[in-house]
Specification:
CATH superfamily of the largest domain: Hypothetical protein af1432
Distance between the termini: 100 Å
Largest sheet: 5 strands, mixed
Number of domains: 5
CATH architecture of the largest domain: Orthogonal Bundle
Number of strands: 19
Structural class: alpha+beta
Strand order of the largest sheet: 1-2-5-4-3
Length: 749
């Protein structure tokens, strides 16, 4: 029996040694500095520390750190520091060795990474959700100081997913769930697209095994058909690239099982109706570093001469990389079989970044940690801001982080042309908070491509956004349903919490002042009883008392003291409503037939001799008034219809009935008023209608015939019908209305 165990131990040692030699060979094949000695030292230390321990699969435990180190080396492209940390990542957690021991043997940097990995060990969910969320916060904090911690953690999770079959089903669901929820989005955000796809597929495999296997079988069954399409589609492309003298490779990219399933769910279609399963990837070696971007566009021009390009599906991530570093030029072409096929054009460098993301910075240089990471740095700063003011609820915190992890991106412009990157579905409010918290807090709306929009307006790539602010604006609780980004939601929630605490403190003060004369004190029990009386939680009750939305009265105190008559002063909240007054000097509105007839008889329009003999009326299509450039049109009944010259109807009449067009000239001497419609829009505010009527009726002494205003999410649109003598009157009224701060646009219709 002893001989058998010894033979088994030797077999394990051989397997371990073989795995380590494979790791060393992979490392030596990279461009990193050849620090074989420290890697060997780390392996020997970890091997000794984990000796005798087995995984659930039955293999020696050291095989797991070796596998993680191999992923770190081959699939993420990191160097010796990260490989050593990967080999040692479970030593402190699972053995008696400490972080100090690691530092003494391997130095401060490796010890710091191992310490970060030790702090974030364990799952994110489970029976102790709050504690696990705290672990995730630690992960993000450590990540912001050294990105290699999270990269190694993702490698650790990838190997766990690859060996998940040895776990019990309930463990499989838990690990697959948190992988799909957090680790796949993290991998995506860091540009690890290949790893992200594998994590998704493995998670899907364990969460939905039947659907996974069904789609996989269909992919296998249609593989030969796809290969035929690929060969036929790429043949003329290869010829064109050969003529350009480029070194390149072309490969087929087949949509993953998980992404096919996601599309089937989103579009409610079967597998057979998912048409973008096949894509083509062109990876080329640029003629020179300076020509890399030009080569991308030259390839695009060349292949779009062969196949028709879809005009709405060109994605230029070459000029404007994604925030995870991704660069490529995507174009969708119509194949000869009538199928749209996406072509991704990348240089070798771009492909490295696409496969390894920010980790590509370490592919050729181990010491790149301190370098400016551009967009990554911005994202890490956002994470730091969120961590500075943690959510009270752990799962809320995870949801806040999750918002930004897996978001597709859009590019929008400031009024000065500066590009801002935002997650897809971001609103004008998100944009305001991305500029500065103060701008977000006081945002009242925005102009998108010079058009006024509400805070909830969803932005599109290419939009130019100007934020409108007001010092009187404050953060509203409704904004939480408008904001789509983690930064905006976190800031809004934080401000609302601070305001709520301040109002609760004010509420306690008000209560104590009211209860002082009755020798009562606003303690927890009394506040609880009062809150129950008003069917509210103590927090909401105090907030409403503090904000004076709720005012106590005599009955509240009687209930507390069990008395019917206490003589306690009654506190009432009396709303003050300012009534509208009728303008006694307003003129009668000429709506009656008699008044309209009077208008027509008083009109004096100077026309030529033929026109003077004709009847005339104002065109309903353009409503001309004195001062407008107009013309007359003699209709079939001999009536003269007066149109604005730029009126679309008049344009047609001029081209079709030139002989019926008459030259006209106004000569009314301000004896006749005309109905004019003004369309106004802007930011809704209290007293707006009063401001408008004050200017029109009081300041200019003009009668309003009709006024209608409609508001939607803080933005109003309105129409005003009024009486004016001429164009000059209308312009004077418009200039007066423009002085109202919240009116942003006025159009005469």
């Amino acid at each position: 029996m002893e001989d058998l165990n010894e033979h088994k131990e030797m077999t394990d040692d051989e397997m371990i040694q073989q795995a380590f030699e494979g790791l060393l060979n992979d490392y030596l094949a990279t461009n990193h500095r050849k620090r074989v000695e420290i890697i060997t030292k780390a392996f020997n230390f970890a091997n000794q520390a984990h000796r005798g321990v087995k995984r659930l699969s039955g293999e020696p435990y050291i095989m797991h750190p070796l596998a993680v180190a191999k992923i770190v080396c081959n699939e993420i492209g990191l160097g010796s520091t990260s490989i050593c940390a990967a080999l040692l990542h479970d030593v402190v957690e699972d053995t008696d060795y400490t972080t100090e021991d690691i530092e003494n043997l391997f130095g401060a940097k490796i010890a710091q990474i191992v310490d970060g990995l030790t702090k974030i060990s364990g799952g994110i969910f489970g029976d102790h959700a709050s504690a696990q969320a705290e672990n995730f916060k630690k992960l993000l904090l450590t990540m912001s100081s050294d990105i290699r911690v999270i990269l190694i953690k993702i490698a650790d999770r990838l190997h766990n997913m690859r060996t998940l079959a040895s776990q019990a089903p309930n463990k499989q669901y838990k690990i697959a769930g948190e992988t799909l929820y957090l680790y796949a989005p993290l991998a995506y955000r860091l540009g690890l697209n290949k790893i992200k796809s594998e994590l998704e597929d493995l998670s899907f495999k364990y969460e939905h095994p039947e659907e996974y296997n069904a789609i996989k079988k269909k992919l296998e069954a249609t593989a030969s058909e796809r290969d035929k399409v690929f060969q036929e589609f790429t043949a003329p492309i290869r010829q064109a690239l050969d003529k350009m003298g480029l070194k390149y490779s072309i490969m087929a990219r087949v949509k993953t099982v998980y992404s096919i399933w996601s599309k089937m769910q989103l579009k409610h279609v079967p597998f057979e109706e998912v048409f973008d399963i096949l894509a083509v990837r062109i990876i080329f070696e640029p003629k020179s570093k300076e020509e890399e971007l030009n080569d991308c566009f030259d390839i695009y021009v060349s292949i779009s001469k062969i196949y028709k390009a879809h005009p709405d599906r060109i994605r230029d991530w070459v000029s404007h990389p994604k925030s995870n570093g991704y660069q490529a030029l995507h174009v969708t072409l119509m194949a000869n079989n009538g199928q749209w096929i996406e072509v991704q054009i990348r240089s070798e460098r771009m492909n490295d970044i696409a496969e390894q993301g920010f980790a590509a910075h370490w592919k050729y240089k181990e010491g790149a940690v301190g370098e400016d990471e551009g967009e990554l740095e911005k994202w890490l700063n956002t994470i730091k801001e969120i961590l500075d003011d943690p959510q009270p609820d752990a799962i809320d915190f995870l949801d806040t982080i999750k918002l930004n992890l897996f978001a597709q991106e859009i590019f929008v412009f400031t009024p000065k042309g500066e590009i801002k990157t935002l997650p897809q579905n971001s609103t004008a409010l998100d944009f305001a908070f991305s500029l500065h918290t103060e701008i977000g807090c006081h945002c009242i709306g925005a102009k998108v491509n010079h058009k006024l929009v509400p805070l909830s307006h969803k932005l599109q790539s290419g939009d130019q956004v100007e934020v409108l602010t007001s010092r009187s604006q404050h953060v509203q609780s409704e904004w939480l349903s408008i904001a789509a980004t983690a930064k905006a939601r976190n800031k809004i929630a934080s401000i609302l919490r601070k305001e709520s605490k301040a109002l609760q403190a004010e509420g306690i003060k008000i209560l104590n002042d009211l209860l002082k004369s009755e020798n009562l004190h606003a303690d927890e029990a009394l506040i609880g009883r009062l809150a129950i009386l008003h069917n509210k939680t103590p927090e909401v009750f105090l907030t409403e008392i503090g904000s004076k939305k709720l005012v106590l009265n005599e009955n509240d105190l009687n209930e507390l003291k069990g008395k019917q008559n206490s003589g306690w002063k009654k506190f009432l909240k009396i709303p003050f409503i300012k009534g509208d007054k009728q303008d006694k000097n307003s003129k009668p509105q000429p709506d009656s037939p008699q008044e309209k007839e009077k208008i027509n008889t008083k009109q004096i329009i100077k026309l030529d001799e033929e026109a003077i003999q004709s009847k005339y009326k104002m065109a309903d299509c353009c409503h001309p008034i004195p001062g407008d450039d107009v013309l007359g049109y003699i209709d079939d009944n001999g009536n003269v219809i007066i149109h604005k010259r730029q009126c679309p109807v008049a344009m047609k009449l001029k081209s079709s009935y030139g002989r019926r067009i008459l030259a006209t000239q106004w000569d009314t001497h301000r004896q006749l008023s005309f109905i004019v419609t003004l369309h106004i829009e802007g930011v809704d505010c209290l007293g707006l209608v009063n401001d408008v009527t004050q200017i029109i009726s009081r300041q200019f002494n003009v009668n309003i015939r009709k006024l209608s205003i409609e508001t939607n999410e803080g933005i109003f649109h309105g129409d005003i019908q009024l009486y004016a003598y001429d164009v000059q009157d209308v312009q004077t009224i418009i200039n007066g209305l423009k002085k109202i701060k919240n009116i942003k646009n006025i159009i005469r219709e």
